Target: 6,7-dimethyl-8-ribityllumazine synthase
Amino acid sequence: MQRIEATLLAHDLKFALVSTRWNHLIVDRLVEGAELAFVQHGGKTENLDHFLVPGSYEVPLVARRLAETGRYDAVVCLGAVIKGDTDHYDFVAGGAANGILNTSLHTGVPVAFGVLTTDTVEQALNRAGIKAGNKGGEAVLAMIETANLLKQIER
Model:
């Protein structure tokens, strides 16, 4: 059996980063983690395009348009949806998750779900780099590996 693994090198990769303005104090940290991970793994800043959208519900549409251009090896989606007192959280978080998954499956371009879905602001901040690592950086690493694996499959 042949085992095929991808590298975590972003030298020749071009990524689109889609982030939300909503909950920007949290999302800005995710973006910083994503940019740092991309550069630390050999990516060039000019190969990382950053697109801002109002909120997490708008992320899938922009991610899909970017994936369909064929200009990007992967799209990284970052946002934060924090539970409140109404059902709004369920619709936004579910819509974002389903839309991002469908974008990846429809286009064949890897699309990372880096949208935090938490009960509290504290949980979100912890996942944005304060205590539990930076989920923005983790999303980029997953896309570097996935994009490189797809390149190997296509050879």
About this structure: The helical segments are 24-40, 59-68, 88-107, 121-127, 135-154.
